[in-house]
Amino acid sequence: MLRPSSLSCGYGFFWGTPLNNRLGRTMSAFACLAITGSAFTGVVAPSHADAVEGQALNGLALLSELVLRAEGGPAYSQDYFEHWLDDDRDCLDTRQEVLIEESVTPVVMADACTIASGEWYSPWDGRTSITPVEIDVVHFVPLQEAWFSGASSWDSSTRQRFANDLDLDASLTGMMGSLNASRGASDPYEWLPSLADTRCQYVSEWVRVKYRWGLTVDSREQAQLRYFLSGACESYVMAVPPLAVTASEAPQETLWPLFKNSYDGTIYEFVTYKDGSSGPVPLNFAKWRDVYGFQRPARTPTDYVGYAWSSSVYAVTFWPGGENAWQWDMLNYNQFRAAGSPGKRNIGWIPGSSFYRWETSSEIFVQAPDATKHALNYAEWQRSGFQPFQPIYDQGFVKLSWSSDIGRMTSLSAGQGSGLSYNEWRGEGQPTPRSQARVNGDVFYQLYGNPTIYYSGPFLNRAVNYNQWAAAGFPKPEIRGAPPVYPFTDVKATATSVVLYGDSQLDGDSWSEQGARAMGFTDQAAHLSFGGIGYSTPTSSAGGTGWTAVQQGLVRFPGGTPGLVLVSMGGNDASAGRSDAQVIADSSALWAKLKLMYPQSKIVINGVMSRNDASHVQRRHIDGVLAANAAKQGVTFISVAGLASTANAQYLDNVHLSQAGHDAVAPLYTAKLRATLGR
Questions:
Q1: Which residues form a coiled coil (predicted)?
Q2: Distance from CA of residue 593 to its chain's centroid?
C-alpha cells in the first residue's frame, strides 16, 4: 500500500507561550519541522521463499515470513467485508456451514435452511453450548485487525474471500458470544485466551491465518507472538497453509520519513498511525538495510538545554504534535561528546522535575531528573513558569538553637528523624533549617550517680555543657539506670489513704489509726504492723529489721501516692538495748527510702509511746534519740514520750496498751497530728 505523509506547520506548532517562557527564547532554529510531501514507493510483498505449502514448520519459522509494519490505513467499516454468503446455493450461508462443521454431534435442523440445535465446544474458555444463537462465528483474525494489517489495500473481491474463507479451518471458528465480546478486534498483544493451555494453539493459528492472507504484524504483536513461539510453544508444529493472495495483492511496506539524532545515532521512522496520530519509532538496522536501502536520514530538530545550577545537559527534540510530543533525553558523557560537546541553553523547567516545599521553611525546591536538588529564588521560580509545588507536610530540616547540628525530620509531630552530614545537607539543596531549642520526643537525662547531663533526640545524642543546657531552658533531666524504687503491690494508694508501718503500737484500732482517720485518711488498708520489730530489731514476721525488711523489698507497700505515711516503732529497740548510733543509722536509712518511695506524700514519724515512770526510761530515751535525728534529717516527727501517763491510759502489760488505753491516748495524739499537718 502507498501512503502519503503530510504534516502542516505554522506558528505555535511546537511553541506555546508557557514553554516559550520556560525555554527562554523563540524557536528560531526549529520554527517548523517539515515532514511533508509524498510517500515513498514500497517494497514488494514477502516471497515466502522458506515456506512450502503443507510443510510442517514451527510457529517461529512461519512468523519470520510475516512483514513487520505499523498498523494503519483508512477508517474501517465492517461493510467493506461482505460476508455470510451462500456460495454453493444450498440455503446454508457461511456461518451455518461453520456451525455444522464444528458441532461435535450431528446438528438438528429446524428446516432445510435453519439449524435448531447441536453441540459446540469453545476451547478458548472450555464452555459448551447446544444452542446455536449462543455461538458467534468469528474471523480468527478480526476484520478490523485485518483491515489495518493490509486488507485496506485489497479489492472488494479479496476482502469477500477473506470474510468467507472455508478453505482453512482456522480462518473461521465458533466462539461463545461473551468471549467474542471480550476479545473484540484485539491482536494477541492485547488479548489471549484465559485458558493457558490453549494459548499455543491460539497464537499458532493466528500466524497461519496472517501468513495465508499476507497480512502484516506490528512490533508489539510480533514481540508477543515471538515470546510464545520461542518459549512455551517452541515445539508446536503447524502445516504451512496455502496462500490466498498473490504477491501483488499482499500488503506492501510503507516507507516513512527518517530522522537521526546526533547524540546516540538512533534512526527514527516518523510513523502515522491508523488513528491519525503520528510519532517517532526507532528503526532497527535490518529494516534500515532491507527496506530503506540505507536511506540517509535527516537530522532531528534537537536543541541542548539544562538548568543553570546543574551540570547535566538535556537533548530536547521537537517532534510535531506540540509540547507533549517532544522527546527529552539526559545525555551521558559519551552522548555529549558525540553531539559535539554543545553549549547548553539555561532554561527554567525540564520535564520530570518535581517542585516541593518542606514544612520547616518557605523555600521552594526543585529536583531535576538527574536527582540534583536546588532551592529556587524568586526569579528562578518565575522562569519555570511558576510551576506548582507539592507541600511536604510534617517533614523538614531542624537545627537546635544551642547546637550546630542539623537533622532531617521525617515526622515533626512524632519526633522522628536522623542526623545530616554537611555533604548530605548540600545534596538536599542546602535547605534553611528551622531553629528551635527542643524537638518533639527529645529528652535530657543523667545516668544514675553521674552528674553529666546528656541530650537524646531524633538526630543527636551526646553530652551537653552547662551553656547548652541553659540555652535549652534548663530542662529537668531524667535519671536513667537507677535501681527500682520499690517492688510495690498492684494496689494504688490515693490522697485519702494512709500507710501505717510499725510495731505492735499499731495493734487494734490504735491511736495512730484514730488520729489519721480524724484527719480524713479513711483508707487504712495498708496496715503494715509487725510485732517485735524495731528500726534495728528484727522480727521473723517481717523478715528483718524495720530498715532491712524495706531495704530488701520484703514489706508489701502499696503503689500510688498516699496522702499520709505514718511510721511508729522504736519501743523494741529500747527493750533490746540497741545503741543510739545503730538506731540513728537505721532510722535515717528507712526514712530516706520512704522519701524515694513516696516523694509526693506527707511522711510523719511517731515517737515511742511511754509512761513517765522509771520502767519506761529507755523508751523515753529512744523517743528523744529519734526526735533529734528527725530534726537533723528534716523529717516531720511527733514525740509521744509520757503521753500514756498524761492520758492515764490503761495497759495490758508493761508495754502494750489496751483498747481503752488507745482510745484514751488518741485525742491527745490527734491534736498533735492536726498541728503537724496544719489543719
A1: none
A2: 51
